[in-house]
Description:
The structure holds 2 protein chains of 2 kinds.
Chain A: E1 4-13, H1 16-28, E2 34-37, H2 45-49, H3 56-82, H4 95-121, E3 145-150, H5 158-167, E4 171-179, H6 180-187
Antiparallel strand pairs in A: 1-3, 1-4, 2-3
Helix pairs in contact in A: 3-4
Chain B: H1 14-26, H2 31-57, H3 72-96, H4 106-127, H5 153-186, H6 190-199, H7 207-240, H8 252-279, H9 287-318, H10 321-332, H11 336-348, H12 356-359, H13 362-389, H14 404-427, H15 433-438
Amino acid sequence: MSKQKVVGLLAEFPHPGALLKAAEKMREAGFQDYDCHSPFPIHGMDQAMGEKRSPLGWMVGILAFIGFTAGMTLEWWTSAVDYPLVISGKPFFSYPAYGPVAFAFMVIFGAFTAVLGMSVLNKLPRFHHPVFYSDRFAKASDDGFFVSVENTDPQFDTEKTRVFLEEIGGQHVELLLETDEEQALENE
Amino acid sequence: MLDNTPLVLGNETFSSITDHISSITERKAPKQWYLLLALASSLALVLFGMIGYLFWEGTGIWGIQNPVGWGWAIVNFVFWVGIGHAGTLISAILFLLRQKWRTSINRFAEAMTLFAVLAAGIFPAIHVGRVWVVYYMFPLPNQMQMWPNFRSPLLWDVFAVGTYFTVSLLFWFTGLVPDLATYRDRAKTKIKKMVFGILSLGWRGGNRQWKHYEMTYLLLAGLSTPLVLSVHSVVSTDFATSVIPGWHTTIFPPYFVAGAIFSGFAMVMTLAIIARKIYGLEHLITMKHLDNMNKIILLTGMIVGFSYGMEFFIAWYSGNPYEQFAFVNRAFGPYAWAYWIMVSCNVLIPQLFWSRKIRRSIPAMFIISIFVNIGMWFERFVIVVTSLSRDFLPSAWDYFTPTIYDIGMFIGSFGLFFTLFLLFVRFLPMISMSEVKGVLPQADPHYYDHEHDTRKGGQHV
């Protein structure tokens, strides 16, 4: 038999309303490394969990500006510096005509920042996570509403946290167990 | 007067939506699917075969000549890019406008965008003639030490369409991630578990993930909105910045964008009617959705009709004899047949949608959507071919006749489009499950606040 280690707890809630209330109680109790899983985003959940606004907007704004500048610079350097050619009598640096391509650069930089930034902030792709040890968790992408707490939370105590999750209405509270082999795999 | 019709009919629950949409790809495909795929992929083969011959023999196999140097290939390009626009309008602009009815149709409208832009992109690429130097279009260092001409609208097009395809793909994939996680969790076979597991990036549906995810979606919608308006505007500058009478008009960008949305919605309509019938999705793509789309077709159809009229007005008002000739020639010259097909299909027939009965009749809207598709192809034909065939000097005039290769490649591009679309409905969720769940009344956390005084299964008040 391999030894098992508790890496977290998972509790199920019956509906989005219950999950929202549970999230408020988790925050009030001072938990940090917890999350509320649902098959669709729930309105008001960010406030309930006390989440700050995602910084992605700033990241995209800055990168989009850099993209626009990069596009303009490329057009200016290729057409006015590296190989200047007079075409239909236009100036070498025809900035109005350079607009559409610079705009395309802006959008493409912005879009890649939005998607890659999301995956960095969400630490995705990550195929291995304690919540996946639970068989019930497959419901989270169907019609299940879950609260998970990880053992990295300073308040985490297997017994006390389990009782707390049941007190706030959690059903089927279960331990997320990691076996030695899995740990070894992770440490490799 | 607020419309309170629910967006999802029947007593749907979260899990019934999952079951319904996932089961489409989990059970055996209906017989019609195999038949359609066989037909579509054969046509796609015709396209690829003809492209092979084109590479061997050159663009002379087409009907293009002097003065009509832009034949069906460019007509098809504009036609297909236009089709794509409805998908982005639904996914981005209607999202920013908080039009929740878009949730049932956005996934496959976005897929339609991707496949239409793919079909479109083929045509200008093979139209360049010497395809082996097609990389000259990109700013890559080459043996001549020359760079692309960034002052040319044809080059803007390369960037506009390339960006449009890439951003649409990112948008579509982002929207798919939560649904791919559902497929991962439902997968029975090892291969499916692996494929959907990797594609869903290990999505856990935690709110800390949803927070960034929703922001990404909003930002992509915000970036796609000006993008979609710019793409067809840039396509129109291919014409508008030239000196050909009938092309050299400032109305082109808005006129092209309205036409693009018009034709795109017609194509969404055609596909949606077939898909909801074959897969029994009447409760998800409801009459309300179809009615709304018909209203957009009516509106954009009238914008297009107004543009046709405005072109004539400006031709007269400008006092430019070449411009006046170009338009009289369109309506009464050798291509009058094409012009009047265009006007009947795009301006007259959609007027039937003023009637609520016709807006809500499936056979009627199916037929009208086909007419709009035909009419919009002819619009591009009229613009490209009539203007070129009779330019400044009568000694240079010529009548354009398509060859078998023009026709075969056009039909073949439908084959490619439908092949990709059929594969999409077979293997991926064609309706966004996570978004449809989100618009159910049960998804509102306050739905449960007064549970004791609501009747079981009653409406949310």
